[in-house]
Design goal:
3 helices; alpha+beta; 5-stranded antiparallel β-sheet
């Protein structure tokens, strides 16, 4: 069970997926201002630990927070609700990331795959 930087970037971009192709292909500069663009390796490690703990263990409404004193970066993962989608457990989840003075917030449907990993679901 591993979550990598590309998967998290896909989460950040999920909302942008509905933009017309012409807008999407020319308007990616906003990514340079996304907090996750500034995460250190230790930030990613802490993020992943909080991500899995929140989704696997926390009841709805209870956030799992992480904070890296070395970088000053932090965030939280808060499962908001849990439901079954096609026989799969899915959790509507709010992810807040803070890095380099930037804050990013998004809500995502994240579903548990048969192998036990969590993946981005269909809203």
């Amino acid at each position: 069970m591993s979550i990598n930087k590309i998967w998290v970037l896909r989460l950040a971009l999920a909302g942008a997926a509905v933009l017309p192709l012409s807008v999407w292909s020319f308007n990616t500069a906003f990514l340079r201002q996304a907090p996750l663009a500034y995460f250190t390796d230790s930030d990613w490690t802490m993020f992943k630990q909080a991500f899995y703990k929140a989704l696997n263990d926390n009841p709805d409404g209870t956030a799992e927070q992480w904070s890296n004193p070395s970088s000053g970066d932090a965030g939280e993962i808060r499962p908001l609700s849990t439901r079954e989608v096609g026989g799969t457990t899915c959790r509507q989840t709010r992810i807040v990331s803070r890095a380099q003075g930037l804050t990013g917030t998004g809500e995502y449907l994240i579903c548990k795959a048969p192998d036990g990993d969590w993946t981005l679901g269909s809203q």
